[in-house]
Design goal:
Layout (H helix, E strand, L loop, with lengths): L6 H18 L8 E2 L3 E4 L11 E6 L4 E2 L1 E5 L5 H4 L10 H6 L1 E2 L5 H12 L4 E3 L1 H4 L5 H17 L2 E4 L19 E3 L9 E3 L20 H8 L2 E5 L4 E5 L2 E4 L4 E3 L20 H16 L14 H11 L3 E2 L2 E2 L3 H5 L2 E2 L2 H4 L10 H18 L19 E2 L5 E2 L2 E9 L8 E22 L2 E6 L8 E4 L8 E10 L2 E9 L6 E10 L1 H9 L2 E7 L1
Parallel strand pairs: 5-7, 5-8, 8-11, 26-27
Antiparallel strand pairs: 1-4, 2-3, 2-7, 3-6, 9-10, 11-12, 12-13, 13-14, 15-16, 17-18, 19-24, 20-21, 21-22, 21-24, 21-27, 22-23, 23-26, 24-25, 25-26
Helix pairs in contact: 6-7, 6-9
Bound molecules: zinc ion (ZN).
Zinc ion binds next to helix 1.
């Protein structure tokens, strides 16, 4: 198929944009808005459109149309080669940047912005001063708004690194067929694709954690896929091959989170959308593990406004019980690469377990500063639960912030709970679906807990009853911290049935626990 970088490609993109502003109107938001603090000026006049340089512009509240680039920096070795703006290079960037010095994705974004007759472009690495902690913190806090206000977000869907470029020839599974119909010359037959042509694995861009909010907060996105271009706005999705559907099909990751951020929605739908976003987000990868909470900051800020609650390192004060009961999911670790011919099921199972143990041994138990009760401390995929009935009392919940609250940057945090505590002997083991611990001392009953990590310090653990839901009872698995009287780390979750619950409550002691 012809490259997206063609007259036909740009005509179609312009047509999509015009259709959106004429037919969807305010649902998809204004196309002109206050520009970000800094943008790249790609030139306005026709003769400037071919200029070999662009320059970084300080905007001082000016209003205009602009595009924003959503892209992968790539693995650390590639990411370190990405051109950035730093305090010493700021003045030079303002006088001019040679386009040929930029990574291919940036060059492609400049080309597209010019062809769409838009003058300004926002790219994170050039428009945020990367060596200034204060500028980074301030601009990272506004990033969600920048994607939300952009006339169009350019999504480099098919580019695994900044250097890959996204304006290349596309491939298609279509086949040219000559059909005996005189009014048409030929047809391009292809199978009906899934939304965005998704097959078994998501495109490189959608494996990146930052992109969850870049896409969910954007108003309008022009995706450059390996096969075709896609238009996605808060109302509709259109494929280049003509396939169309309403944005709600891809709930909740699409622009406006299926209307949650734009329309008046039932509060339960807002909560459910938040937890679905956390589940999706937790599967994504980050170049810097320290970005685990900041990369969700734009969405946290929007949901904070909608829910009117305090954000505590990835959880919400008014919904703390549900927030605490996340469970480790083994998506990424459970896959075992390749089959060995003749390999027995038991051997494959053993290999999978070994993979989980290896992955766990490489991961820090708790990401610096993030309390163990936050899903963000795990640094991997989690499941969340629906609304439950709380059975414990929350005495206190607090974090020590080291940046704006919604960025989730904290040096520590603690939650004090009053309720039923059980101490029990456990036997740890690893299943193909992740680490487990079975409880001893309850006769023939063997409740099994889902553990956050493979290792542990002791043979016994503490179980704290947090919530119930019809016939199920939910507990946090805790480990007493060394030297700190009464302080615990969260190390897992346990779900019991009626019989197990009865047996555990018989030996439960009413206690106060502080989880850090
Ligand atoms: Zn629209």
């Amino acid at each position: 198929m012809q490259s997206a970088n063609s007259e036909t490609g740009y005509r179609l993109a312009m047509h999509w944009q015009q259709g959106c502003s004429q037919l969807h109107g305010s649902r998809c938001g204004p196309t002109v808005s206050v520009l970000p603090t800094r943008v790249l000026d790609v030139g306005e006049e026709v003769d400037e459109q071919n200029a070999e340089t662009v320059n970084l512009l300080l905007t001082y509240g000016k209003e205009d149309r602009y595009t924003a680039l959503s892209h992968c920096w790539g693995p650390p070795a590639e990411a370190s080669k990405v051109i950035v703006t730093t305090t010493p290079s700021l003045a030079a960037r303002q006088t001019g940047i040679l386009i040929s010095d930029l990574p291919q994705n940036f060059q492609d974004a400049i080309t597209v912005t010019r062809r769409l007759k838009i003058r300004y472009l926002w790219v994170d690495s050039l428009c945020i001063i990367q060596d200034s902690a204060s500028d980074w913190s301030e601009e990272a806090g506004k990033m969600g708004d920048y994607y939300s206000r952009a006339t169009i977000t350019l999504s480099a869907l098919c580019a695994p690194t900044s250097h890959s470029g996204f304006l290349r020839d596309r491939w298609t599974e279509g086949r040219q067929l000559d059909l005996p119909l005189q009014e048409f010359e030929n047809f391009n037959i292809r199978k009906v694709t899934n939304p965005f042509g998704l097959a078994s694995s998501p495109p490189p861009l959608w494996q990146r954690a930052w992109v969850v909010q870049e896409r969910a907060l954007a108003s309008r996105i022009l995706h450059f896929g390996a096969e075709q271009m896609y238009w996605e706005c808060r109302t509709a999705v259109v494929h280049e091959d003509g396939w169309k559907y309403s944005t709600s099909v891809d709930s909740p990751l699409g622009p406006g989170c299926s209307g949650v951020l734009t329309g008046k929605k039932h509060v339960e739908k807002v909560w459910n959308t938040w937890y679905k976003l956390v589940e999706q987000y937790s599967k994504r990868t980050l170049t810097k593990e320290s970005d685990r909470l900041p990369a969700l900051g734009g969405l946290a800020s929007k949901f904070g406004q909608l829910l009117g609650s305090e954000y505590l390192a990835g959880l919400w004060r008014v919904d703390l019980i549900r927030g605490l009961l996340w469970t480790r999911r083994n998506d990424s670790n459970s896959k075992v690469a390749g089959y060995t011919k003749g390999e027995k099921y038991s051997e494959r199972r053993a290999r999978r377990i070994l993979n989980i143990e290896k992955a766990d041994s490489m991961r820090p138990t708790v990401t610096a500063g993030i309390p163990s009760w936050s899903w963000a401390a795990l640094g991997g995929p989690v499941n969340t639960l629906p609304q439950l009935v709380a059975v414990c009392e929350i005495e206190e919940a607090k974090v020590t912030l080291t940046g704006p609250a919604f960025l989730g940057l904290v040096s520590n945090g603690e939650i004090k709970l009053l309720g039923s505590l059980v101490k029990a002997e456990v036997e740890r083991f690893t299943k193909p679906t992740g680490p487990r611990a079975s409880l001893r001392g309850f006769g023939s009953l063997r409740p099994v807990a889902v553990m956050d990590f493979v290792g542990t310090r002791s043979d016994s653990s503490y179980f704290f009853h947090v919530a119930s839901d019809k016939m199920k009872y939910y507990w946090l698995v805790l480990e007493l911290c060394e030297g700190e009287a009464g302080e615990y780390h969260r190390i897992g979750t346990l779900c019991t049935n009626n019989e197990e619950q009865e047996a555990m409550l018989k030996i439960a002691v009413n206690s106060k626990v502080t989880i850090i």
